[in-house]
Design goal:
The complex is a heterodimer of chains A (123) and B (107). Helices cover 0% and strands 54% of the residues of chain A. By secondary structure, chain A is an all-beta fold. Helix content of chain B is 0%, strand content 50%. Chain B is built from no helices and eleven strands. Classes of the chains: A mainly beta (123), B mainly beta (107). Chains A and B meet through strand 5, strand 9 and strand 10 of A and strand 4, strand 5 and strand 10 of B.
Chain lengths: 123, 107
């Protein structure tokens, strides 16, 4: 069974930092792209960042570029999101989600999601 | 960036009703679209991928159609467990973008 378990959220002051983790199991982590998606309280879903299976390609939403860094450790089957210079508007539930591919390598978007970890930015 | 316009933003329906939700992409995305269901307090769950392929384990009352710029999610006969918020997601190009969501409520 595919499982994703996020951790690392918490209450932090504006300008602070956090590192979120997503522990993965039940699939071949090293060949799967991974994603972070967030949801502010009462709002919709917002894609934040993606990383290829090797970690060589990374992508960011404009709203977080330069402040957030996605990375992965394939030996530990763990995905990370380093979030710096936090702003009040970064307050959200942060989900990690696994990328899905066809047998021919066509990207089918995100299939399995974790339960999320909450980040609250407040003074 | 590709914008996804989802409608309606909310709807009220009764058990047994047919429900249709639409997503329009600001430019063509082929069939690179998925539909997700999110129940209150829970993580999103994928229902449909590649615009029209039913995710394993998802009831057959859910179906998706469309390609290019116009997509629909249809629930053929709404059940009590279907009351939730639904989102479309385009993954044709970065940034991946979600529709604004459709909240399906009990009439």
């Amino acid at each position: 069974e595919v499982q994703l378990l996020e951790s690392g959220g918490g209450l932090v002051q504006p300008g602070g930092s956090l590192r979120l983790s997503c522990a993965a199991s039940g699939f071949t982590f090293s060949i799967s792209s991974m994603n972070w998606v967030r949801q502010a309280p009462g709002k919709g879903l917002e894609w934040v960042s993606s990383i290829s299976g090797s970690g060589g390609d990374t992508y960011y939403a404009d709203s977080v570029k330069g402040r957030f860094t996605i990375s992965r450790d394939n030996s530990k089957t763990t995905l990370y999101l380093q979030i710096n210079s936090l702003r009040v508007e970064d307050t959200a539930m942060y989900y990690c989600a696994k990328g899905d591919y066809s047998d021919y390598g066509w990207y089918y978007g995100m299939d399995v999601w974790g339960q999320g970890t909450t980040v609250t930015v407040s003074s | 960036d590709i914008q996804m316009t989802q409608s309606p933003s909310s709807l009220s329906a009764s058990v047994g009703d047919r429900v249709i939700i639409t997503c329009r992409a600001s430019q063509g995305i082929g069939n690179d679209l998925g539909w997700y269901q999110q129940k209150s307090g829970g993580a999103p769950k994928r229902l449909i991928y590649a615009a029209s392929t039913l995710q394993s384990g998802v009831p057959s009352r859910f179906s998706g159609s469309g390609s290019g710029t116009e997509f629909t999610l249809t629930i053929s006969s709404l059940q009590p467990e279907d009351f939730a918020t639904y989102y479309c997601l385009q993954h044709n190009s970065y940034p991946q973008t979600f529709g604004q969501g459709t909240k399906v409520e009990i009439k």
